[in-house]
Amino acid sequence: MSELLLRLFVPAGGADDPKVRTRCGQLSGITGIILNVLLVAGKLTAGVIAGSVAMIADAANNFSDAASSVITLIGFRLAGQKPDKEHPFGHGRIEYVAGLIVSVLIIFMGFELGRSSIEKIISPSPAEFSYAAVGVLAAAILVKVWLFYFNRKIAKRINSSSIAATATDSLSDVIATSVVLAALIGGQYTDFPIDGVAGLVVALFIFKSGWGAVKSTQAPLLGRPMSKELAKEIDALALEHENILGIHDLIYHDYGPGRAIVSFHAEVPADGDLMQTHEMIDHIEREIREKFGIEAVVHMDPIVVDGDTEEMRALVEGVIKDISLDATVHDLRIAEWDKIRNVYFDAIIPYGMKLSDEEITAKIKEEIQKKSGFNAVVHIDHPYIEQ
């Protein structure tokens, strides 16, 4: 069924194709709205007749799902708009905002379900058992299981955090409705306020799922590091060119799915031909655009390659490796200023070090002065790549 719907309503294309992303978002949103509205009507009717707070809360949860689907639909519609003068990088981040709103709605419904359940525990009243209510809940479980797999398939196809959050919500609904169904059946055999307790358990689970979804959807909004895999591929592509001695300051700028820019510094021989080097850098930018679908901005860093510089580089790298094995050095050069021999360089230090940047700088300067007599002019930086 999922494959049939995708074939009927989604055109062929990759995850970065705006038309494919828009159609996938629309399909997920419209399907979710229709099915959740039907579930709300069935559960609310059965819950009122049975006097079950858990069923009524579960119906309210499905209502939030329908609202979430509306937000997802609007989000993808807006995200698919072309860049304009006010938004030259497009509207892709709206998809991330939509995912965050969905996640917050999940948390809100968890709180609401918890509040209603606590009230039912304090003032218990048995729910009225009926086969109609059991049938509605059983059908709802099947529908939500299908929605989970359906949305997960779409999310994987276009790498969408907002639809992945919707899939997570569907899975939490399966467990929530299963607990409500068990409570409805079990409540006929005990005076214990099982309806309220079951609702509270479900509320905690929904809250946990919503919080996990918030954490995953806020990352691209705040700015996330480039993946190690992509960094390695770009590094390998650049180093295939003979006069690229190394790259550093690799930064990933995320403006939404399919709308990314990468920038980095490429080290080139200082005595190389300027025009040939410029042409090579332009060629690398084109290669990255064609291979990864990412716009690239590459800055040339001319470096001196001679015996003294390489000897100093080896010494400096040894010093910072004693601080952290993951630390790296770049932009190293030797110069004399006011009769003082200086070595200038940037040191990339991983996050999470016990020493502060100031303490690390002081330690590096002290060790280099001791081992070479040079004064170290150090700029401490941190990686933009996933650690």
Summarize the structure.
Helix content is 63%, strand content 14%.
Question: Would you mind describing this structure in some detail?
Answer:
The chain is an alpha/beta fold and 387 residues long. It folds into three domains: 2-222, Up-down Bundle (Alpha-lytic protease prodomain-like), CATH 1.20.1510; 223-303, Cation efflux protein, cytoplasmic domain (Alpha-Beta Plaits), CATH 3.30.70.1350; 304-387, Alpha-Beta Plaits (2-Layer Sandwich), CATH 3.30.70.1350. Helix content is 63%, strand content 14%. It is built from eleven helices and six strands. It has helices at 2-9, 18-50, 53-79, 93-122, 131-158, 161-186, 194-222, 228-239, 274-292, 307-323, 357-372, and strands spanning 246-254, 260-269, 295-303, 328-337, 340-348, 375-381. Strands 1-2-3 form a three-stranded mixed sheet, covered by helices on one side. The chain has a three-stranded mixed sheet with strand order 4-5-6. Strand 5, helix 11 (357-372) and strand 6 (375-381) form a beta-alpha-beta unit. The longest helix has 33 residues, at 18-50. It is elongated and about 90 Å long. The two termini are 40 Å apart. The model has no long low-confidence stretch (mean pLDDT 84).
In total, how many domains does the architecture comprise?
3
What structural category do the secondary elements indicate?
alpha/beta
Biggest sheet statistics: 3 strands, mixed
SSE string, helices as H and strands as E: HHHHHHHHEEHEHEEHE
